[in-house]
Structures are given as structure tokens and as C-alpha cells.
Design brief:
By secondary structure, this protein is α+β, with helices and mostly antiparallel strands. Helices cover about 25% and strands about 30% of the residues. It has helices at about 20-35, 70-85, 160-175, 205-220; strands spanning about 10-15, 40-45, 55-60, 95, 100-105, 110, 115-125, 150-155, 180-185, 190-200, 225-235. Helix 1 (about 20-35) runs antiparallel to helix 3.
């Protein structure tokens, strides 16, 4: 994403205890509306990480005001979220220095909210690049295996409305058994990344599994009504550190 170096993005992260992607997406859409968010991530919780269900995060942008130092911008950026969840602003802390870089955080202490649990609130400079690598769990919430094939799909979504983009990505996310969906917008069509983990079949070699999954993913995307920018599959955990060409 092409954000100004001084633009602050406040990220709100929540846990919703459901195995239904549609419910997690509904929460994401609600948070997008509440905060006019420009980025969203929905991912299945790691079964070995202490959470159950889905983790949903949204981010909204705050540009700096004239004459405002970075710490002041971070504080101001967090105010809408702090007020929304009834959190004490005195416990929002600024970390780092102007020389090394600063960010603000509030330890939410697993704050109960309306149908979900708020567990993190952070403000930092810059947004999440949808191409950033990420760990992905299996679609059935079972532990990963080294033989799993990972697929990463990049889509251009024909809307700049993030809530509508979430709805449009619901079908391919279901078709691909995606465990992580990351969508962002930068004053234009949304960009989406969908990550899935496919277990190898019994007796299947790594190359056979890779070939099978590549063909399955390609076939499942053949009816997607949006531009498929790139499809990657690998026998590694999301190794795509560079923009797909």
C-alpha cells in the first residue's frame, strides 16, 4: 500500500468464538463501518495458540495534523477506538523514540464486547501490506503438518468499498477453504489475499500434492467474477515475500 510515511494506522484486533466464516465476516463488516476502516484481516485461530474460532482485525488511518509530533498523532489516532470500547486513555502507552520509531499500544486484557473479545489495540505508522507473509492454519482448525500445501491467491476486487469487498470475497474464501483473508484499499479497487492450507493425501508425494492443489485452486477460481492477479502454491509456509509479478 502507498501510505504517507507519517500516516498512522490504528489496528483493532478481536476474537470471535465461532467456526462460521460468515459470522467472522459480519463482525469485520461491523468494525469497518464503526471505524471507516481501510484494511481487514480475518484468520482462523491457531489451535495451538490459545484462541478458538476466528481472529478479526481492522485498521483505520489518521493523518498527522500541522505541528503535531508523532506521539501526539498516535494518541489522537487511538482516541476513537478507546472511546468506542470504553477504555481508559491513560493506559494507552507510547513505545520507542522519534529516532528509532514509535508506536502506541493498549493491552486490552481480553475486554468483552458485543459478541466478541477485544484483545489488542495498536497504532503505528503505515498500513499492512497485503503481500506480507503470514502463517496459515488448516480449514478444520486441526494442527498443521509439514506436508501441507500452502496456496496464496491475490485478487483485485472491483470495488473500493471495503465492506462490499468482504462480501464479494466470501465465495472464493469458501471455495478455497481459506483460513486467512486480508483485504485492503488505497482510494481504488480493493486488493485481497487468500491463504489456505491443504493436507496431503495418504501415499501422495510432495510433488504430487503440489500439482494436485495447484490444479484444484486454479479450477475453483475459474468462476470468480474478479481479476485473479496471481496464484502461488508451495510446500512451505507462505514463502512469498515479494510482490507477485
Amino acid at each position: 500500500m502507498d501510505l504517507r510515511e507519517t500516516t498512522v494506522v490504528t489496528r483493532i484486533s478481536a476474537n470471535i468464538e465461532t467456526e462460521d466464516f460468515a459470522e467472522a465476516a459480519t463482525l469485520g463488516e461491523r468494525l469497518i463501518g464503526d471505524f471507516e476502516a481501510t484494511e481487514l484481516e480475518i484468520c482462523r485461530a491457531d489451535p495451538e495458540g490459545g484462541w478458538t474460532g476466528y481472529l478479526v482485525s481492522v485498521g483505520y488511518r489518521t493523518p498527522p495534523a500541522d505541528g503535531e509530533d508523532p506521539a501526539e498523532t498516535l494518541h489522537r489516532a487511538a482516541v476513537p477506538a478507546l472511546f468506542h470500547f470504553g477504555l481508559n486513555a491513560e493506559f494507552f502507552e507510547i513505545h520507542g523514540t522519534p529516532e528509532t520509531g514509535q508506536y502506541g499500544s493498549y493491552d486490552a486484557y481480553d475486554t468483552p464486547a458485543d459478541g466478541f473479545t477485544l484483545y489488542s489495540l495498536m497504532a503505528s505508522v503505515g498500513g499492512t501490506d497485503p503481500r506480507e507473509p503470514a502463517y496459515v492454519t488448516r480449514h478444520d482448525f486441526t494442527p498443521r503438518a509439514e506436508t501441507d500445501v500452502i496456496s496464496r491467491v491475490h485478487l483485485y476486487v472491483p470495488t473500493g468499498d471495503l465492506r462490499l469487498a468482504v462480501d464479494l470475497c466470501g465465495r472464493p474464501a469458501t471455495d478455497l477453504s481459506a483460513s486467512l483473508v486480508r483485504i485492503s484499499t488505497d482510494a481504488g479497487p480493493c486488493e485481497a489475499v487468500l491463504l489456505s492450507a491443504f493436507p496431503a493425501l495418504a501415499g501422495e508425494s510432495g510433488e504430487e500434492a503440489l500439482s494436485r492443489v495447484t490444479h484444484e485452486v486454479t479450477d475453483r477460481l475459474s468462476h470468480v467474477g474478479m481479476s485473479v492477479r496471481a496464484i502461488h502454491t508451495a510446500l512451505e509456509d507462505d514463502p512469498f515475500y515479494t510482490e507477485p509479478g
